[in-house]
Q: What sequence folds into this?
């Protein structure tokens, strides 16, 4: 029973931490895009949506990479 509770705790904590960091990154990307849309030149304003898309894709890929590293670390024999 202790192993089961430990597994549930580890998975829940991992989801909150990883997804929380992703959410914070997405909010920061949105804030950067808003600042660019408000104060940048007209040409850059037109491309602000593409910039937001690129930042969110980079955030998701970085999160997937970090999750893969964590999974690989857990699978290594001690």
A:
């Amino acid at each position: 029973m202790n192993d089961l509770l430990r597994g549930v705790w580890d998975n829940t904590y991992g989801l909150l931490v990883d997804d929380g960091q992703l959410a914070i990154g997405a909010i920061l990307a949105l804030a950067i895009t808003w600042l660019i849309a408000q104060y940048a030149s007209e040409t850059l304003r037109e491309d602000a949506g593409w910039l937001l898309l690129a930042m969110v894709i980079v955030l998701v890929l970085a999160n997937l990479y970090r999750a893969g590293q964590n999974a690989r670390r857990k699978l290594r024999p001690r």
About this structure: The longest helix spans residues 2-39. The mean pLDDT is 83. Residues 22 and 59 are 7 Å apart (CA to CA). Helices lie at 2-39, 42-46, 48-75.
